[in-house]
Structures are given as C-alpha cells and as structure tokens.
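2 proteins. here.
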Amino acid sequence: MTAALQGSLMVDVAGTWLTAEDRHLLRQPEVGGLIIFARNIEHPRQVRALSAAIRAVRPDLLLAVDQEGGRVQRLRQGFVRLPAMRALADNPNAEYLAEQCGWIMATEVLAVGLDLSFAPVLDLDYQRSAVVGTRSFEGDPVRAAVLAGAFIRGMNSAGMAATGKHFPGHGWAEADSHVAIPNDERSLEQIRAHDLVPFARLSKQLAAVMPAHVIYPQVDAQPAGFSRRWLQDILRGELQFDGVIFSDDLSMAGAHVVGDAASRIEAALSAGCDMGLVCNDRAAAELALTAAQRMKVKPSARIARMRGQAIASTDYKQDPRWLAALTALRDAQLIG
C-alpha cells in the first residue's frame, strides 16, 4: 500500500475580515496555512483581530506574510519601515544591524498574531535581476550568508523560524517569475560555487526554504519548485536540509509551465514541497484544493516547526532592546 502524499495548501482571503466563504475554505483539512497581503491590512489592531478570527476557525493554521523590509513590506501603517537588506552591507557594523532588523521584523509580525514572514532572501545581487535587486544582502555569497545568518539570529531570538528564498538562487535569471518563466543557463557547478553557498552555509539555521520558479536547464527541465532533482537530490540529499519546503506562489507565471492549478499543486507536492501556496486567485485555490482532496494528502509533520514560538505581546515597544535596535538603525541612517 502506497503512503499518502504529504502536503497542504496555503491560501489567502480578499479583505480585512473573513467572509462565510473564507471560513468554509479555511475549515478544509487540506488547507494548512494562510498568507496576508497589503489588501488585508489596515493597522496593527485590525491585523490582530483578523488573526484572532482566523484562529477561531482553525487554531492550527500557519499564518504568514511577506515582511522582508525595503519594497517587500506588507505591514506598513503602525510598523517600522525597515530598509532594503542591500542597504545594510556597506555599514561597518552591518552584521549587528542585520540582526536588529531581523529581531524588529519578527517582533512586530508575531505581535499581530502571525507566525512568520517569508524571510530572508538568500538570492545574490548580480545586478541582473530587477525582481531581486536590493532585496538581496550582497553579491558575494559568503558575505550574503554572514548577513543573512545575523538576520536569522534576530528572527530566532524574537521567536520566529526563518525561511530562505529562492532556492537555488534567483539572482542570475533576469526575467521576473511573477510575470514570466525565467531561465538560468549556468551549470550546476557554477551555481554550486556561488548561489548555493548561502543555502549550504545556513542549512542548519533555516527552518524552511522556498524554491524559485526558475528553470535551470543544465540541471532539470522543470522549475526548481517542481523538480525532484533540486528538492530531493540536492536540497535534501546534498545539503542535508530537513526543514519545511514551501512552494513559491503557484499562481505566478513562472509556475504555469506545468499546467493549471491542479497540475501545479500536484507537481509541487510530488516533487517534495510540504506546503503549496496558491494566492490572489480564489478559483485556482479551489481547483488546487480539489486536487489535494483527490490525492488524499496528509499534512506534513514538519509544518509545526514554523509556528511562532513567542507569545504575541503588544507592549514590545517598552522593551529596552526595541529602543536600542531602533537607535542603531537610525544612527546608521537606515530608518527615519
């Protein structure tokens, strides 16, 4: 008898409160997580209320957001506007500042009832990819790993698990996988020598990894997130990574190469993803859910590792570390 395929879905909702249709979707056992976007956010109190409403329906759901800093920062009003990570690198105390950024980000996200931000970005800045650009810590792989490692220490000390993205590296491919299917024509040896370095060095600190919707034709004809070669042989085997694998958003153009939403979720989970994200397209989410139900998927036990470890507190601004972290970032002219 074949073991049930492990995996679940992460979905989203349209507004700042839950509809009856949202509640019905979230009750489905194949749904294991929910990600919020800017459209779901007004201010910290409202996000806390939305988180509480979601947990009233499903206390076990993993709640996520993209809160990297710089231009990828969904929580804005009432939150610290963190710098783009690339801005840290030129500071003499860049490592300390990266750790403070990770701690501030995680503290604020946990305080509104969410479990995690999909961070940090481990892609290298080759000054080729506009979609990566200043989201990257550095172009040098060892330096990028050091700064990302400091950011992760900050996240962890606040109680948040880290997700490295976008494995095995999105910095070389010039196309934006949100709207196209990028190709990275380099050999595995070239990628190993550069882009894989941060993932390899941080494999024990990362609780999760998110693969890129990029095709590396010299390694596999499928995008990394649908590739057993990348996810099983290289990430799990070569790098000995035992954490969670989240797909990137399966509604992005870079994922369309494998077909409709049902085909995409099946391909992602079959390749080894523990959770597939289907965002900004409710019809696609429902199609993916039907496919997951047909496949009789069971949630991956790894997902529990991603839950926020700190009790959500709203008085973090009284913490001396908060004041010290803000002062350090202001002194470095990284925040206003």
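next one coming up
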Amino acid sequence: MAEDDSSQEKTEEATPRRLEKAREEGDVPRSRELSTFAVLMAGSVGLWVFGDRITESVINVMKDNLSVERAALYDTNQMAIHLASAAHEVVWALVPLMGLLAVAAIIGPLGLGGWNFAGKALMPKGSRINPISGLKRMFSMRSLVELVKGILKVSLVGGLAVLIIDWLEPEIMFLPMESMESALAHSVSIILWSAIALSASTLIIAVIDVPYQLYEHAKKLKMSMQDIKDEFKETEGKPEVKRKVRQLQMEMAQRRMMGDVPDADVIITNPTHYSVALKYDPGRASAPIMLAKGADQVAFKIREIGQEYDIPILEAPPLARSIYYNTEIGDEIPEGLYIAVAQVLAYVFQLDQYMAGRGPKPQNPKDFPIPDDLQHE
C-alpha cells in the first residue's frame, strides 16, 4: 500500500510529452507583471519619442479652438469644422503612440511562454462557470499570492508616485506662471520622466514574478511515477499490441520473402532445419545475394516452393548453416564463402547442361571450404 501511495505522489518533472500536451491546451507560463512592464515602458518610450509632436498638436488644437472669431461661435458649420480639425490633429498625433502600445501589448506576453495559439483553450469549460470551482480559486494559495503581489505593486508604485510628486512639487507649482506653450512643454516633460520612473518600478515586480510563474507552472505539471508509466504505455503502446504489430510485420516480411523464392538460382539446405535461397546476377551484383532464408517450418516452405518452380535444391548442411547465420536477406554472401558458393553455382550450371542433354551428369559436391570464423554447428 505504501508503494502504491508513493507512486501517486507528483514528484517527477514533466516529460516532454506532458509539456507538449499542456502547450496544446494553452497551458504555458505567463506573467501579467511582465506584460504590464512592457506596455508601460513602451508608453514611456513613446512619450519620449513622440512627446514633442503630441505637445505641438495639443498647442495647435488649443490655439485653433481658443482663438475663434465671435461670428464663428454662432455658426454651427464652423464649429463642426473646428471639431473635425481638432480630432484629425489629435488622432494623427496619437497614432504612433497607440501603435507602439499595441505592439507592446502583443509582444509583452511572449517574453515568457512564446507564441502559442491553442484552439482547445477557446473551448467552453464547465469549470469556468462552476461556482464551487470559482470559490476554490478565490481562496486558493495562488489567489493569496496574487493578493500579496497586488498590495506590493500598489504600495511600490504609489509610494514612488508620492516621492516623485514631492520632488517635483516646486516645478508643478510654478507651471501657472509660465506661458501656455512653455507650461505645456514643461508638463509633458514632467509626465514623461514620471512615467519612465513609475514604469521602471514595475520591473522589480516582474523580476520577482517571472521565476515564480515558472516555478508554479513546473509544479503544476509535475507527474507521479504512475503518470509516467501510463504515458509510456499510451505513447509506446501496450505490450500485447506491440507483440501483435511485430507479428504482423514478420508475417508481411515473410510473405515478401517467399515471393522472391521463385527467382532463386539454387536453394541450399540442411534437410531437417535450414534453407537458404540464393541468386547470382553478375550485371547487378558482384556476389550472390540471399533472397530468402528460414528454419524449421519456414525452411520446409522454401524447399516446397523450390520444388514447385523446379529450382535446384542442394543438401549441404555446413554451408547452409554458415550462410543462414552470416547473411541477411537482400545482402551479398560474405567474402569467405565465395569459393564454396561458386562450387554450388558451377554444379547448378553443369546440372542445367546435363538436363539439356549437353553434358555428363555432374557429381554432387560434398566438401566446401568454409572459414572457421563463419562455421556454425
């Protein structure tokens, strides 16, 4: 029982298959703090780059709308023209900044987890609207961590904002005494550097949050030994299924092999155990090639096919064993057996001549030179 309990403890790191499956379901590590930092920094950089253009546009809008002739105030057409002109000026001033923010909002999350489009994540799940599941999420450890992060974030950013306002208070109080153009430019400068400082403060939270999210994601995907065993069975297949597949593969290979036997030039046998079918085509190979081999019932089937197609069958037990154990189907025979097989092929040629009435009956060869390292008992 203790062994069963230990096998259910999730102590093992997630396997590559488990990580791949989680990614397919949209379960990748994400850090909202990293995304927030990316958007805020992009906004700050945008203000720094496009601040002059935005300031100039605001000044132009204020000039056009605060210096209106008296007659134009009573002309609705003129008011519509002023409104359209102001909207056009503001939109074209803010488009670059908005575009930069949009890019940051898309790229920011990619800093952790990368691109991942998972259709399964879009599918409706009952657990998302289940009140009990919702309560469990509200009072979970993750929710507590998010609450602590929120409090720290507000405290950090709020505290820094108070320090910035206190530091810039003299400049802020002096703004009403400046000209309109100077005050606007000065205000933009104050907003810019304040935004940069506040954005930089969120980096501290992101640096803490990213390792935590990686840790939580790895912890959530941990597996027990039983999970790994089940995954292995699912991936590799059950043993009985694998045995059946191997059996079918062997049967298919055997059928293909038997289909090549009629092309053989000679079949060499050990009458009770082994049979090998050889073919020699000087135009395609430098040595005879084994077309088929088998033991016991397979050997008997090879001899049976040979008899059906009138293929010469030669009993040579040592040579048959040697070829059987040292040659794979489709390969050339070993160099050490060239002389012995040449004697067999010469016998087959002489036998063909005899059957055609063009020569004496050849003697069945008995002794074959087989090197010691190729002999098999």
